[in-house]
Design brief:
203 residues; three-stranded parallel beta sheet; two-stranded antiparallel ribbon
């Protein structure tokens, strides 16, 4: 196992996150620092690592194009290190995984889908993540995390809610409205009766 190297895509990220960049060093000059994709390609120097690209659909045009180049077949992908002139290619064992919050894979560009022929839809939270919530929140959280668009809440929101509702100056109902917005009332009602109404049930 050569490790995983993570990229979190945003509108503000640049190619330096992917390929690397020049940075000032202690000698008063500049040194090249490899980006996450290069580090994943090289892994431990013997075996390539895994590049995890979170929310790839959030990447801007230039970064997206660079990622496509780095995700090309191992026979085609290469990068010339500007510091050494060395042509870097993925070591055997390199792999890549991407995540996206889009509803349908068809919304992704064809070139990207072609690089990830296997797609797995994750529509339920991990059981261990649910277990970190109090029992009365687990079923509600499991339902809304996997809910339909507009009737969906994240586990992060439930973690925040659980912490905030324990503040005596806030209380459970106010905390729900602060964290969940339009979903607050169904959650408040569910906590009172022990279940969500049918319209929020998984379908």
């Amino acid at each position: 196992e050569s490790g995983a190297f993570r990229l979190i895509c945003t509108d503000d990220m640049t190619n330096s996150d992917v390929t690397g960049c020049w940075q000032p060093n202690d000698n008063g000059s500049w040194s090249w620092l490899d980006g996450q994709a290069i580090r994943a390609w090289q892994g431990d120097g013997i075996t390539g690592g895994r590049l995890v690209i979170d929310e790839i659909d959030k990447a801007g045009g230039d970064v997206f194009a660079t990622l496509l180049a780095f995700l090309d077949s191992t026979a085609s992908a290469s990068f010339t290190n500007p510091a050494t002139g060395e042509v870097v290619t993925p070591l055997p064992g390199f792999s890549a995984v991407m995540t996206s919050n889009i509803e349908h894979p068809d919304e992704l560009p064809i070139a990207l889908r072609d690089r990830f022929p296997v797609a797995i839809k994750i529509d339920a939270p991990h059981p261990a993540a649910l277990m970190s919530l109090p029992p009365e929140l687990r079923v509600i959280a499991a339902t809304l995390v996997a809910g339909k668009p507009g009737k969906r809440a994240s586990l992060r929101a439930f973690y925040a809610y659980n912490q905030l509702r324990q503040n005596p100056e806030v209380g459970a109902e106010r905390a729900a409205r602060m964290v969940f917005g339009h979903l607050a009332q169904p959650i408040i009602d569910a906590l009172k009766i022990g279940t969500l109404t049918p319209e929020y049930a998984l379908a």
